[in-house]
Every structure is written in C-alpha cells, then in structure tokens.
Amino acid sequence: MPHDILTLAVLAVAVVLLVQAVASLVQTLYIWDSPDRIRAAGKPDTYEKPQHGFTVLLPARHEAEVIGETLRRLGEARYPRRLVELMVICTADDTSTIQAAERARFEHDLSNVTVLVFDGEPGKSRAMNLGLAAAKHELVTIFDSEDDVSPEIFSIVDTIYQRRDVDVLQCGVQLMDHDSHWFSAHNVLEYFFWFKSRMHYFAERGAVPLGGNTVFFRARDLRDVGGWDEHGLTEDADLGIRLSIEGKRFGVMYDAAHVTREEVPHSTRAFVKQRTRWNQGFLQIIRKGEWLHLPGLRKKILVGSVLTAPTFMAIVIACAPLFILIGITTKLPVMVSLLSFVPLLLAAVMLCTSVVGLYEFGKDQGLRIGPHRYLLLVLSFIPYQGLLMVSAVRATYRELTGRRGWEKTVHTGNHRIATPAPKPALVPVMASEAA
Amino acid sequence: MSVLQAAPEAAAPAAPARPPFWRTRGAEVLLVATLLIVSGLLHAWNMLGYPYFENDEATYLSRGWAFITEGQLDVATYRYDHAPLGWMAIGSWLGLTGGGAMFGGMLEAGRVLMLLVHLVSTVLVYLVAKRLAGGRMTAGVLAVLVFAMSPVGIYFQRRVLLDNLMVLGVLLALLLLLRRPLTLGATVASGLAFGVAVLVKLNAIFFGVGFAVLLWVGAVGAQRKHAVLQWFASAGGTVLLFFVYALLNEELFPAPVDADGEPAHVSLVDTFELQLGRGDFAWPWQPESSFMEAVGSWVGKDSLTLTLGAAATVGLLLVLAARRFRDPSAWAVLALVGGYVAFLARGGIVIDLYVAPLIPFLAIAVGLFAARITDRVPDDWRRPAVGTVLAAALVAGYVLTSDRLYLTKDETSNQDAALAWIEQEVPTDALIAADNYVYPELVQEESYTGAMYFFHAEYDPELRDTYADDWREIDYLVLTHEVVEQISQGTVPRMAELLEHSTLAASFMDGSSAFVDLDAGISTNGDWVQVWQTKSRNQIVLQDAWQRFRDDWIVSYGQVLEDDAVSTTSLDQVLAMEQALAEGDEAAFRGVWQWTTDHMRHREDDALTSWQWLTDEDGEGELGSSDTVCSADQRFIGLLLEADSTWGAPDLRSEAARMADDWWERCTFTLDGLRLVDSSADGSVDDQLINPSYFDPTLYRTFATQLPGHDWDRLIDDGYAFLARVLDERGTIPNWIVLTQEGDLAAVGDLVDGEGDVMGEDTLRLVPTLLREEIAGEPRARKLLDGLVPQVVGYAADAPGLPSSVALALVAQVRDIGADAHEIYLARIASQVDPETGTWDGTLADFAWTYSWHRFQERVPPALAVPIS
C-alpha cells in the first residue's frame, strides 16, 4: 500500500508544518496581541534612583582602532560612573588593544575602565568567563565593540531590575540597514520580530535562548551555572537554556529608541557563514542534550523546536519539489490535500505580516521606506528562504562531518575577536522572519 | 517593589455603596434567563406544527445525514450551490441525537437544533447589543425582545435554514471583535468565526463592511494593522479553502461541454454564474422588482419589526450626525444593516427567507438606538424605569400587532398524512420525484430506493440515468407549494411534463390556508400536499395526441378542420369529442358540440347531425350535405350521456335523449324480422344500404340502461344475427351491403364510392368492436371473429397500411394468430410516433386509426393491454 503510506506521510508533514506555522505566527504576533502587552514590552516611563552596579564585559582582539571609541560612548552613559565598570578583556600579547584602552581611559577621563589580560588561547567565551570572575558589580552585561548602545540603557535596566522580579534581562538588538543588501530587509525583520515580540513569548514561558549582547545577568547566577560554554558556537543560546533550566526569571525590553543598533552581514556570503555557524551551534546544543533537563514538556518542546527549526525547515524546503511531484502525479484524498494547503496559506499570512512589520519598523525608527522596498521584500521572500536552507544544509553537513571550528574566513579581514561582525543575537530560522 | 506599570492607576475611588439589586450581575443574569425562557417558549411552542416543513430544510438535513453517515456532501452530486459547513454541523447534530430517533424524525430533530441555535443567538444578540451600547442593558433587552418576538423571525428561525446557523457565526464573530481590549487572539477567532459563517452561507459576506468598521475602531495604534491583516487572513483563508476544495476536486472551473451541450461535470464557477443570474434585474425601487415584492411579503408577515428596524436605522443616522459622526457603534450597526440591505436591493432575486439574517441586526439597531436615546435620561432610577417602559411598550406592540399564528396554526399535519399515505400505498422501489421534505424519512429512515428530490431528479445526470432521462418512467410526483412554484417559474420542465401527465392519487389539503390553482401555477402556502401518479405510457400518448389534435385541427370554437382541407364531417367532430371526454377536457368537449349544433344540426325533421360542412379558402362555410351518418349520431348520443355522468351535465343528457328518440326512429329499421342500424337517416328508400361496422353492441348495452324507452337488446341480437348471415352467405363481411325489401342480400355496386362489396377499411372498423365483445364474453362475437380473423390476417398481408396494421395488431393482442402484438405495434404503429411531440404525424384519417389502437388498450382489462415503452 505505497499510496496509503504516501498519504500518511503527506498528512504527517502537513500537520507538523501546520503546527509549526501556527506556533510561529503566535510567537511573531505575541506582543501585538493586546495593547497591554505592547505597553508592557517597552521601556519604563520613569526611572528609579540608580541602585544596581554594572560590569560591562568588552571582549576584544585586535580592536585597537575601535575600542577607544567604544569606551568613549559607553562613558557617556547617563548613569553614575561609580556604578559602571567597563572591562576590556584581551590576551596579553595584544598590546595595541591594551594601549588603545589605556589611552582612551586617560583621554576621556574614564576612571571606571579596567583592562583584563590573559594568556593562552584567545576566545570570546573564555574572555567573558575570566571577566565574570573579575567582575565587581552585581549585574554583568556584554557589548560588542562596534555596538551602538543607548546612553539610557543602564537607567532602564536598573529600573526594571528594581521594579520587576527579573534575573536575566534581554534588551533589544536591532539591525538597521534594511536597504543595504537584497536580503537585508528580511534579516532586519528577523531581529525586529525576534526582539520585539518572540523573546517576550519565550520569557513568559521561562525558556529563553538568549541573544549575544545587550543581555544583563546577575553575576551570581552566571557563576552558579558555570559561565559560558567555551566550546560551542552559540554560547549565548546555550547559556540561556542553562539559565532556563535553573528556573531563572527572564525579562525582555524592546524600545525603538533604546535598541542596540547593528548592521547586517556585509555580503550574502558572510550572511550564509554567519547563519551556518548559528545553525551548527544549535545542533551542538541539541547534541549536548542539556535542554532535555528543562522542567516540563512544554519548555522542552519550545526550546527543542527553536533549535531544530532551521534543520527541519531545510528538510521541508529541500523536499518541496518532491511534494509538488507527489501532488501532481498522485491523487491524494482531497481532505489531505486541503490540509496541506493550509501551511502554504499561513506562509502567505506570514509574508503579509512581514510587510506590516517592515512598515512598523520604519515607523518605529523614523525611517522612510519606499513602496519598492515592500515589493522587494515580497519578491525576495522565496530566495531568502533558499539562503536559509543553504545555511541549514551547510550547518548540518559540517556538524555531521565533524567540522566544528570557526570557518576560517571569519578571522581573515576582520579584526574582532572570535566572531564576525555583527555578533548575532540568536535568531532562529524558518520560512519567514520568525521560525 | 511594584510591578512595571505604564502609569499608576488613578486613585481608587472611595468604596462605592452597595449597588441596588437591579444593578448587580445577579439581576442581569436573572433578567437574561427570563428573556431566554420567554423566547424559548415562543419559539418552541408549536414549532413542529408551524411553519410547514420546507423543501430546503429537508435538503440540509438529508445532506447532513449523508455527510455524517457516508462522508458525502450531498445525497446526489454536490453542485457547490452552498458551501457545506452548515449541513456538516446539522449532520453532526443528527449524529449526536441518533438521526431522527430521539425526536421522532430528522425534520423534527432539525427543528430542535434550530431552537438551540435560536437560544444561543439570543444570548449573543444580548451581549453584542449591550457591548455596542457601551454596557447598557437597555440595548440588550430591547434587541432580544425584537429578536425573540418578531413573527417573521419566529417563522424563519424555526426552520432548518443555513441562515440561522450563519447568523450564529456572524454574531459570535461580532462578539469576539467587541472584546475590549481587543486582542489578536480574539481577532483571529472572530475572523475564523466569520469565515465559517460565510462557509455556512455565502451571503454572510455582506456583513463584512460592518466588521471592517469594528476592526478599525477596535484595534488601536500599532495593533491595528496586524489586527486588520489577521482578521482578513483568517476569514479569507477559511473561505478560500472552499475554493481550493473545488479546485482539488477539479470542479472549480467549468468543464468542457459534451455533445449535448452539457458540461462534463459540475463546477463552482458554473453554479455561481447560475445563481448570480437568477431572476431578472430590476431596480429595487421598481414595484415589480423582486426586492419590493419581498418587502411587501415581509411587511405583511411582520410590519412592526421592519418598521422599528427601519426607524432605528434612520435614528442611528441622526444620532451619528448629532455626534459629528463620532459613534463607532452606530457606524458599525449601520454598516452591518446597510451592507446586507444593499445585497437585498442589488436588483437580483430576493427570496422570502433572505430576511432571516437581517432580523438580529435590526433588533440590535433598535436596542442601540434605544440606548442612545435613554443615554439622555439621568443615570439614576429614572434610566432603568424608562428602559422598562420601552420594553413593555415593545412587548405590547408585538402582542397587539401579531396574529400569533405561530402558536396555534397547524401546517404540518397534511405533510405527515401524505408521508403516511405514501408509506402505506406506494411500493418502496417506486420512482418518486418529490418535494424534498419526504426525503429524509422515505430514503434515510425508511427504505425507499427511488425517491428523489425533484430538483435533483431534474438536473442530476446520475439520477436522470435512473429513469433513463425519460420522465415517463417516474411513477409519482409528490406535489407541494415549492414544486408548483418551480414549475410555474419554468425551472423544472421535466417535472412540469410529469405533472401534466399524471393523475391525482391523493390530496391532503385539510385546513390548508393556501389558494391553489395548478393550471395557473399558483399556490399561496405550503401547508398542503398532493401525490400525483404518472399516467401509463399509453395514456400519455393519448393525452399528447389529444393536445396535438386540439392544437392543430380544431379551429374556431370547435370545428375540426385539417390543414388545407375543406371538409368537416360529423365523424371528425365526434372523434374530437370522444378524445375531449376521455382526457377530461370539458371546455373543448362543449365547444366542439356547440359548433356541431350551430353548424350541422339544422335538419327539419329530426335533431340528428348533417354529415358534412364545407369551408372555402376564405374561411366562409356552408353545409356540404344535410344527410346524416348514423354511426356518428349514435356516438354523439353515447358521448353526451357519458359527459353527464362525468361532469354532471343534465342539458347534454336531455339532448342525448331527444337525439336517441330521433335516431331510433330514423336510423333503425325493421326488415325481414330484424331490427337493424341504417347507414343514414336519409337516402335509403326501399332497399337498405347497410354499413356493418356501424353495429356497436357495447354502446347499445349502455343505452339499454340509460335510455330505456327503446328495445336496444333487440338491436344487439338482430345485429349479431344479421352479421352472422352476411358472413355465412358472403364468406366475408364487406364494407357495405344492401338488404333488399325482399330480405335478400345484394351487392352495393355503384351506390357507394370505392369498393363496397369486398372486405376493406370499413370492415376493419368492426374488428375492435367485436374483440371487445369477445373479451366481455360474447359468444356471438367470438363466432364472427372465428370466421373473420383469418381474413383480417390475409388482408393485412395483401394490403399493408395503417388500417390493416391496427386491425392485425389488435387481433394478435386478443387471439393467437402466431404473431406478437407488441412487435406488430412497434414495427407498424409506433414507428409513426414522432419522438419530438410524443404523438403521431399524418392525416386525420391516419390519426383516427392510430388513436383507435391506443384507445383500445384503455378499454381492455390491463392484463390484455400491450405494454408500450
């Protein structure tokens, strides 16, 4: 009965896709569900008197050219300097960076800058773990050196920690250059939906794969879970999951004016490599199996689905021609065909949601977005899915063949430590802006 | 520390005083419960007796049952006439309640479901009206009162209609969209509910404008665009599935047409085109438009609700103007009502039940308007007091204006009785074309295999195959208001033919308030049923033949005149009257007789008819001969008597009696001890010219009982004796013969045209007469036939033609002559039938012969009749 088996297979895939698409839409639109949620997701209207101290970890490697500027901007934060420790971390042999940091400290009169040096293998996670050990304040956060950080961020975070029962706070990170590449609008919207809406959904459910920067932790919590994983490719998501297992409470804040601004990868090639690395990182986390210790089935499913989404979607997209072939050559029961039509419909809804999202992103950021940008967004939808698929397939292939290191090209032509710019927030992949 | 808040709440008001009871939630629940009970009673009381079970109700029930038991969307081929969700729901209900088992029938089960639907809708109307009015109970209560008490509402809400389910979906969608603050979840749920409502009945789409308004005002700020998108996506996506379903079945686009011009399969586009094209376009303000007619009908049923609804709508417009168009609720209600009214007034067909979905929104308009008015009353005890007075006035209005037929009138007993009759009298394998109300019971509860919804019977190719696409094969037509309406609209030509060619088997019209005139295609109410039995094929041929005869050959008010002919004979006239009588056509019968009397009965000495009238090219006419033909007159007499028996016409009977006296006097004679029938009252002086075929013993037997003044029995006995002598002496019965004054038989020679002295066409006319006598057990007829039959067989071989064929076929039918009567009929008589008209072509003379064969079949016992197909 190959026909029956075929029918069952199509039915099963359709049902999974349906569930996936509905879940994805629910997460994507989570914040817009009610005006109350929209209001609660933003920054506080008033700030409390500063109370918490912050240690800002700035892992750097050959960053002599930008570290000074980074420190200067962080120094302009409207927050008592005594409560902010700016910690540049680099290897002892990186003398130019050390000198640049020292120079900035004097030139801009930054009494709160410290430089932490270490010997041995360079590595971002390692640097951060060392920084964590040396951190003197209660709250620890990470920025990347090219990040454009809001000067009010410490006030906002301090207020939230005072008013709400929060252990970990993820603040918004937003790619800004929606018109720089053919794929950038989709990439921008991934960040937009991820930090503005989906993160809230995860935080509400207590299972959050965190982003790579503008995350605030209690130093105590980080030490309890043993800091960052120094071997994974996506140590940020991994950390989020371990904190989730510990039952930490997550908060999310996305305010258009106070997001940490970043840029999309500088080429299609860079995008694919970046995405490959994230996807492979997810696979590593799955392999580690810690996520299986998340309390409750719902959290396991939630995190599991996020981690597997890129691979799953790659398989589905790769199989799409096969399904089209089946549809053309085989007479499936009409109800099965009808059901398998629904995910397609939801994909169209998702695309429309993206169009609305692009409009809102422009409005949020005060950018004028011309009509052709929307047209381009629609036209590039399917090619973008192809890009995601290629990345997912590469990631799977690399993981299966044991190539677990950084791709070499990442290091060349880029002076920053360990990661290519910009450091990703963890953005999962699906047939849309939101997996 | 406190939780994150956008802004601190305004200082909490001082603890309010305990509100009076009528302001508590408990009081509201009590009030709504009371309204529900009252509404439930109004709708439930007599709900199985009124209104009559309508065709569509059974359609949806039977489809629902087919869905739940067989997974089919229709009992026949699904034609995309409606989206199927409505009867899927109905089918689920039937499944849950064991088909008709729990409530004594599917129709009854359907009505119970509608009661539940009404109750849920009532709660929804209350909530929607209240929310639209900003929480004012007055709005909810008044809306519910209108919704529950509207007679036209009760009429249609009791019926198992898709509209009622659709309204439930639309109200639910509204309520969800009225959630404050509006969430995307509620928005999506609302869109899905609306999409489902559309898939229950597509015209829900016309409420869409109202939803657009509510969406715009309900969602705020950044949420709005997402809300609009998600609502339209969920509603539109749901509706789209219907079209995708059609596409997947390859039934979306029209199929190529086959040789007959019929598409190879059904298609959604075809059906939509058909539906959109229904009815003629007329501007809604034209009095003859379907819209104005429907409005007239609705006002007749329920003037109060429509007046109140219209007034409230206008009132809301004024409110809107007074508030500088800043009243989203008023906008929404106006858009809901306006959108649907625009649909009704689009210029196409408006069916009576289209009003059903409008009622709840008119009710909500009344509620909202009342709330807006009472908003001006101070918000203390006075406001509820005014609300109470308004509610009481509304109730009083309904009590005073309604005839409350819905509580008392019985419209379904006739339908039940007809069903019982069918189950008693009609075999389960009969082919029955019926108003669909019988379908669930006959087919789905009982075991009738051949019962068909008349519309399907007309249009469904598979069903048409079951009767070989020949309506004559259908055995019964269950005739109702709806069937009459469709026939008179010309949508079901086969059914029209069927009714035209059937006889009334049972009629159930006790206590019916309907005026029914089938000839005019009029029925005014559905509380009656008739069962019509299709005539036999032979009867159908005879009926069509008479139709053709009347249309082609009867001119003026009763003259039989063939095309291009000049002569009208008394035999032609009598043939017309014979058919008119057999077909029950009294008007034609009397017309022909009147014309005959006016033109052919001016003889000085008797009341008999002259045999010929001549008409010239200009239509001017004159008597061609004043002589009589005795066989014509005897047949006139017989027909006039029978007409009196059939229609009660004493004038005709006395005329017959007068003619019979003259006929006996002038058309019979006594010679050689025998009383015999003359050929004519005129002409013979000494020797008697006799046409043996004029002898009609069967007719004389009826005269013997009805016209006792003469010795008819002797005429029979002597006639037989004379024919026996002729056969004996001449070895045959010639066309004509002379009986001389001396009592000898003599040749006619030149006395008549043609061959008078041999066997011929006239002789053959005697054959059916003698055969009928033989069948009736007359030994003298048998003896005569013993001698005559071999000659008929021989004659048919020598002189093939219609007369000899008919005679041969009749003989073969009654006697064993080694030939098959049916085959002779098919080869030599039926071949004359024109398949287009169902009757035969040819001359009047041919007609008379063919007619003779078919009429003979009606006059012999059914077992002897030759079946035709």
UniProtKB/TrEMBL annotation, chain A:
The keyword Transcription does not apply. It comes from Demequina lignilytica. Its main location: membrane. This is Glycosyltransferase. Its EC number is 2.4.-.-. It is found in: Membrane. The chain crosses the membrane at residues 6-32, 301-328, 334-362, 374-397. It is a multi-pass membrane protein. The keyword Transferase applies. Keywords: Glycosyltransferase, Membrane, Transferase, Transmembrane, Transmembrane helix. InterPro entries: Glycosyltr_2/OpgH_subfam, Nucleotide-diphossugar_trans. GO terms for molecular function: glycosyltransferase activity. It is an enzyme of class 2 (transferase). GO terms for cellular component: membrane. It comes from the Bacteria.
TrEMBL record, chain B:
One of its GO terms (biological process) is lipopolysaccharide biosynthetic process. Pfam families: Glyco_hydro_8, PMT_2. It is found in: Cell membrane. GO terms for molecular function: hydrolase activity, hydrolyzing O-glycosyl compounds; pentosyltransferase activity. GO terms for cellular component: plasma membrane. Residues 98-243 form the Glycosyltransferase RgtA/B/C/D-like domain. This is Glycosyl hydrolase family 8. It comes from Demequina lignilytica.
